[in-house]
Amino acid sequence: MNVLCGIDEAGRGPLAGAVFAAAVILNPARPIAGLADSKKLSEARRDVLALEIKTHALAWGIASVSAQEIDEINILQASMLAMQRAYLAMVADFGLHATLIQVDGNRCPKFDLPCEAIVKGDSKVAEISAASILAKTARDASLLALDSQYPQYGFAQHKGYPTALHLQRLAEHGVTAEHRLSYAPVKKLLA
Length: 191
Known about the structure:
By secondary structure, this protein is an alpha/beta fold. It has a single domain, classed as Ribonuclease H-like superfamily/Ribonuclease H (Nucleotidyltransferase, domain 5), CATH 3.30.420.10. The chain has helices at residues 43-56, 67-73, 75-94, 126-149, 155-158, 164-173, 184-190, and strands at residues 4-10, 19-25, 59-65, 100-104, 115-118. The chain has a five-stranded mixed sheet with strand order 3-2-1-4-5. Helix 1 (43-56) packs across helix 4 and helix 2 crosses helix 3. The protein is globular, with a radius of gyration of 17 Å. It starts with a strand and ends with a helix.
């Protein structure tokens, strides 16, 4: 029997917070309507779909790689590591292995099973769309937690992306332990 696992990440571009990834094996007997690239869905719709995915999927896993790890190994390697961790978390929690992994993008992390990279996979493959939604909602939740820890930065609004507000607050308040020191706008402030 073929078992497809979709994997996607969220949070490569932000200046702060971890990069997240999710792995999902959907249940063909319980299809989920409305799966799409998480960036094309409203926050409210993503939250509803994330709950449906967690309820109806055969298996799912979410993992992250910290800002400190991103600085040590670079964002591409951190994204690959988050994807590997998400798959391993799914297997650990559900005991279900895939026969094929499909990831969004043009590169595959190393896995001990076949893996295909699909450009714009988050809008072409339901499993990748589901993973995209779980990764995005998990990352957003982590930035809301950071917002309560560092209210002066406005993380709830910009989710760590390099918006005018974020850059202004960075200039006013300096760098937190959650900022990615290897990213140009943060590096420039520290210089």
